[in-house]
Amino acid sequence: MTAPTHLLLDVYGKCPTLDRLVEKILTDELSFALLRKMARPKLKLRGDNAQQLTGFLGEAPKAGSAPNPHEWHRDSPGEVCISIFLTGFDGPNMEATSLVLGGHWHPYCPRWNCLLGPSHRIKKRNVTLGYLFFKKFSRIIGKFIINIAAWAYVHRGDFYIFINDTWHGRESATNGLPGIKFMVGFYPTGMPFPDIATSPPEHALERLPPKLRMAASQQEPMASIEDTIIKRTLDKQKERQKFIFRLAQIEKQIADWLTKRNSIYGK
Asked: Measuring CA to CA, which residue among 248, 247, 265 is closest to residue 256?
């Protein structure tokens, strides 16, 4: 729990209505066709979480290129997320998801591989020196991003299917209204998890609808990811690991090294 966000992890089998909503998305002809294009019909579930955004009045950061309080970032590569919105995020400044159009093609994560966040600083002899690394290439990327940022405004009961490789963040909250969404993360069976992901206990699996149960059990047979959107996304990222993105990554590595060497990271 933090001031702006409360997160409940692994809500398998705790709400039959919610489980049926996920099952409907996994079996509906249209949404299943999209999932099939993205990741093949065989999926394994990494986790399902409920998130409440409290309406805490977040402010845009005073440093960096992100126009939203939750800095631009990328979640686990290759993962597909289904989000179901239990309240509406249907207008500006209601903590809706913000995203960079085409961000899934970019080779690196904006949080860990670029200098798009708060400035690095070093402290020496009790004098804090604003170490503003020149950030030339990261600034170029940042200006490009702001011009193509978009927002996923949704009504209560809507859902979206999202590629977690997309650069995304979250808008500010200025109206003080809380919002709740439910997120389910899937991987194609032909891709390894990036970390250890355990399946739910047997008593929780028994309460799940058939399609969701198979995905959550992680027992679906492996299927090739060739000719899927996920595979094309990851291939395109490898093609772009040069030029300005690579130079921005080097800037970040130098700034991290200097910061670590001087033993402080400040705002």
From this structure: 265
